Amino acid sequence: MQIQPVLKKFALLNQYPSLIHAFSTRKGGVSDPPFHYLNLGLSTADDPERVKANRRLFFEALNIKEDRLVFPQQVHSANIQIVKKAGVVAECDALITDTPNLFLTVQTADCFPVFVYDPQNKVTAVIHSGWRGTAQNIVGKTIRAMRETFRCAPQNILVGIGPGVQKSCYQIDEKTAQYFDKQFLSPDGPGHFKLDLLEAIVLQLTEQGVLLEHIERDATCTHCATDEYFSYRRDGNYSGRMMGVIGMVK
Ligand SMILES: [Zn+2]
């Protein structure tokens, strides 16, 4: 078994030596099935000691000290916090900082992790955007908060959208569909639709002035990529969590 975590990065963000970012896969790590192998979610039924060991492997691979991490207590909200110090942030699904050596994290298993960087003003953000957050435009609101608080110019902002559940695997009911514009919905049998959450997120970015060529997507479907990603929709309570992290070094 391979212990060393397999991590992924965005080419768009990887060109900046002072920026550290990555998102995890389920490869590497020490958890047993069904959480095999790199489960980074403590709120799962996995052995917490295994999860802690996985987190150590993940952050060591990135050369990040664990006392420099920020963990949002994700609640599928549109709550955004500007942070200056490490620790746990209550009820929050987006974090923004201009503080160097502070690393923002997000946990997902089908919801989209969104990584944001303004290389001009040296500001980073991370967003957890599932259907509830997307319905409340959490991505657009985060970009707006970066503009208002840090004077970030949208045309400078770079975005990486990590893996999430793709439209082909994302059936929703009528009640959920009412929150989304028709252009993101396809009929899928009586009272049901397929939802293109990824494209809805892209539109929330471009509406705020982020350039399309500054948006990189990992369009892998978490639900389909059984060996590569955890998927809550596929595995329910037997699903582990991936983690994303972004921050600037001084
Ligand atoms: Zn799929």
TrEMBL record:
It holds the Pfam family Cu-oxidase_4. The keyword DNA-binding does not apply. Belongs to the purine nucleoside phosphorylase YfiH/LACC1 family. It comes from Caldithrix abyssi DSM 13497. It catalyses: adenosine + phosphate = alpha-D-ribose 1-phosphate + adenine; S-methyl-5'-thioadenosine + phosphate = 5-(methylsulfanyl)-alpha-D-ribose 1-phosphate + adenine; adenosine + H2O + H(+) = inosine + NH4(+); inosine + phosphate = alpha-D-ribose 1-phosphate + hypoxanthine. The keyword Zinc applies. The lineage of its organism: Bacteria, Pseudomonadati, Calditrichota, Calditrichia, Calditrichales. This is Purine nucleoside phosphorylase. InterPro entries: Cu_polyphenol_OxRdtase, Cu_polyphenol_OxRdtase_sf, Cytotoxic_necrot_fac-like_cat. GO terms for molecular function: copper ion binding; hydrolase activity; S-methyl-5-thioadenosine phosphorylase activity. Keywords: Hydrolase, Metal-binding, Transferase, Zinc.
